[in-house]
Amino acid sequence: MISMAKANRVSSVVVDRTRMLICSSPILPRTPPPTHLRPSMDLVPVKSFIPLSVKAFSTKSQPSSGGNGLPERVGFLGLGIMGSPMALNLIKAGHDVTVWNRTESKCDPLVSLGAKYKPSPEEVAASCDVTFAMLADPESAVDVACGKNGAASGMTAGKGYVDVSTVDGATSKLISEHIRATGALFLEAPVSGSKKPAEDGQLIFLTAGDEALYERVAPFLDVMGKSRFYLGDVGKGAAMKLVVNMIMGSMMASFSEGILLSEKVGLDPSVLVEVVSQGAISAPMYTLKGPAMVQSKYPTAFPLKHQQKDLRLALGLAESVSQSTPIAAAANELYKVAKSHGLSDQDFSAVIEALKPK
Ligand SMILES: NC(=O)C1=CN([C@@H]2O[C@H](COP(=O)(O)OP(=O)(O)OC[C@H]3O[C@@H](n4cnc5c(N)ncnc54)[C@H](OP(=O)(O)O)[C@@H]3O)[C@@H](O)[C@H]2O)C=CC1
Ligand SMILES: O=CCCC(=O)O
Predict the structure, then answer these.
(1) pLDDT category, 61, cuts 50, 70, 90?
(2) 193 Cβ closer than 6 Å to some ligand 2 atom
(3) pLDDT above 90 for 198
(4) What is the Cα–Cα distance from 145 to 126, expressed in whole angstroms?
(5) Which domain of life is it from (predicted)?
(6) Ligand 1 centroid from CA 166, angstroms
(7) Nearest to 89 by CA among 104, 76, 100, 103
């Protein structure tokens, strides 16, 4: 149901597996696993492994049924800044969507537009063919997928789970293990792009995991996004997303320093924003957020707490392969200071406040 104009714009990149094998080195954590992955967590145990044959599932690129000749029923878990517009775009495209959110009231606008509601992730997964999840962080992603009444409890062979949250590879692998143990397929698909691209169906999906599920959910990804990358085994999508957001967090910290320095030496910071936007270091992020930052305004598109989470996870990824990342480490400290100033729920551009004298 994607428009032809949109269909022509959507691009898909499948990274060649052979090349991935040659270029990639395994990511082996050398630090203790984060607390949400330690055994004390109240997870539903992984069921005994059921070997899967991907041939049991459709590998067509534009499938329209869940294997029973009926249209795929789509579940959506997590209706925050990103999840709400993503689910809304699926509804607008005419898909059969069932939603759940921890704070139930956030489901109401979507239900009024035709979505169904179920009171737990388990019931959403049980009633849908494919379930998407857009959760805040690794802890919530694990809890919603693998905890009590979690999605894994409602999964069976033939279904699929697509986690579009930004998490680390270890978390994604844990969720994948729980989902695949039910016989269902798993795809991680974190997104690049913020609130506006989510509203406009212009996200970039960074996917990895079961390729058959990637092919099967492609029509849904194309409703919500403008391009999609298939990167290989579970963990590769998470890694790509963390590297991108590590760069973004450092860029924003550096931009903040520049704005404040320009002001202090008597320049007009608005002119700096304009100069930057015309030159080699121009970026949509600077053009979009710079004018508001100059006015000390930070309307939330990407919450600062999530940017700090991503820097923390990216630093863990770098640590796991002994890659030096001093700029990102310094930026992370700045976001931590901003959080301590109560700016967690502001846009991440509020990191500039951490550099102002208090
Ligand atoms: N905002 C952005 O620009 C982008 C964000 N992302 C990533 O997408 C994910 C979601 O981001 P965003 O929508 O901005 O975040 P929000 O903070 O707006 O939404 C977070 C969602 O997670 C739910 N949640 C949080 N904790 C729990 C929990 N313990 N159990 C169950 N549900 C929980 C929230 O439920 P409730 O409503 O009840 O609080 C809400 O639905 C994050 O991983 C983020 O890093 C990726 C790209 C862009
Ligand atoms: O994870 C958040 C990404 C925000 C963006 O890509 O603009």
Answers:
(1) very low
(2) yes
(3) yes
(4) 13
(5) Eukaryota
(6) 9
(7) 76
C-alpha 139 to ligand 1 mean position (Å): 11
Distance 286 CA to ligand 1 centre (A): 24
Atom of ligand 2 nearest to the CA of 301: 4
> What values do phi and psi take at 145, rounded to 5?
-85, -45
Q: Which is it for strands 185-188 and 191-192: parallel, antiparallel or unpaired?
A: unpaired
Pocket test for ligand 1, best of 110, 134, 146 (most atoms within 8 A of CB): 134
CA distance 303 to 311: 13
Residue 344 and residue 47: Cα distance in Å, rounded? 37
**Domains along the chain with CATH numbers:** 4-19+63-232 (3.40.50.720), 240-355 (1.10.1040.10)
The answer to whether residues 9 and 197 touch, using CB atoms and an 8 Å cutoff, is no
Question: Do 231 and 19 touch, CB atoms closer than 8 A?
Answer: no
Token pair of 50 as six digits: 């059921």
Tokens of 341: 């100033």
- Nearest CA to 52 out of 155, 174, 143 is that of 155
Chain segment 229-247, per-residue pLDDT in tens = 999 999 999 999 999 999 9
Dist. CA 32–CA 37, nearest whole Å = 10
Whole-number Å distance between alpha carbons of 262 and 336: 24
The reply to whether ligand 1 has any atom less than 6 angstroms from the CB of 79 is yes
CA distance 269 to 56: 59
> Which ligand gives the minimal distance to the CA of 249?
2
| Residue 216 near residue 64, CB atoms below 8 Å | no
- Give the residue numbers annotated as catalytic, written as ranges: 241
Q: What is the pLDDT of residues 148-193, one digit of tens each?
A: 999 999 999 999 999 999 999 999 999 999 999 999 999 999 999 9
The whole-model pTM stands at 0.88
313: number of Cβ within 10 Å: 25
User: What pLDDT does residue 14 have?
Assistant: 56
Mutation pick for ligand 1 pocket among 105, 288, 306 (CB with most ligand atoms within 8 Å): 306
Q: State the ligand closest to the CA atom of 81.
A: 1
* Measured distance CA(328)–CA(334) in Å, rounded: 10
